[in-house]
UniProtKB/TrEMBL annotation:
Superkingdom, taxonomy of origin: Bacteria
TM spans (from-to): none
Keywords associated with the record: 2Fe-2S, Iron, Iron-sulfur, Metal-binding
PANTHER family: NADH DEHYDROGENASE [UBIQUINONE] FLAVOPROTEIN 2, MITOCHONDRIAL, NADH DEHYDROGENASE UBIQUINONE FLAVOPROTEIN 2, MITOCHONDRIAL
Protein name, per record: NADH-quinone oxidoreductase subunit E
GO MF annotation list: 2 iron, 2 sulfur cluster binding; metal ion binding; NADH dehydrogenase activity
SUPFAM superfamilies: Thioredoxin-like (SSF52833)
Obligatory cofactor(s): [2Fe-2S] cluster
Gene that this sequence comes from: nuoE
CDD domains, alphabetized: TRX_Fd_NuoE
Entries under InterPro entries matching the protein: NuoE-like, NuoE_dom, NuoE_N, Thioredoxin-like_sf
Lineage: Bacteria, Pseudomonadati, Pseudomonadota, Gammaproteobacteria, Lysobacterales
Entry's cofactor comment: Binds 1 [2Fe-2S] cluster.
Length: 174
């Protein structure tokens, strides 16, 4: 197990990585489930540690969640690596996900991806040099088919995209 050692030779566990605010948020999720179903709190816990860590979840924070919830680390890693809402590498201040599923593709998602990549000078999965924007890897489906093509920017849905609308949205990001 990974452990952090401080200068006074006092060993710390992964739990020391969790802020009081993060612990409180995880406790709120744990209260919603019986002890034998505490695995159900893992998504809420991952959101809390991702928020604490500037938008991504490190391996050490996954271990902290595992210890705090008292579930196997593999369960935490499975959730963090499966769901596109979690990032396991550092990301920009703003995260843009472009849906490329069939409905969006049929209504121009490929052009939206190309336009965004050209505008930002990066490819899907990359972050701008200034750390401002990450184009998240392809989003399979975000259940907004009637508004295709669409993208999610920092958790907010934008539908029926045009190049002009993309310029407006990205221009409003700090």
């Amino acid at each position: 197990m990974f452990q952090i050692v401080n200068p006074q030779n006092k060993e710390k566990t992964h739990l020391d990585l969790l802020s009081d605010e993060t612990r409180s948020a995880i406790d709120g999720w744990l209260k919603k489930y019986p002890r034998e179903q505490r695995r159900s709190a893992v998504l809420g816990a991952l959101h809390a540690v991702q928020d604490q860590n500037g938008g991504w979840v490190s391996a050490e924070l996954m271990a902290a969640v595992s210890e705090y919830i008292d579930i196997p680390l593999v369960w935490v890693r499975e959730a963090a690596e499966f769901y596109s809402m979690f990032h396991t590498q550092p990301v920009g201040r703003h995260k843009i996900s472009i849906c490329t599923n069939i409905s969006c593709m049929l209504r121009g998602a490929d052009q939206v991806v190309k336009y965004a990549e050209n505008k930002l000078g990066i490819k899907l999965g990359e972050t701008t040099e200034d750390g401002r924007i990450t184009l998240v890897k392809e989003e399979e489906c975000v259940a907004a088919c009637t508004g295709a093509p669409m993208m999610i920017v920092d958790g907010h849905y934008y539908e029926n995209l045009t190049e002009q609308r993309i310029d407006e949205i990205m221009g409003g990001l700090d």
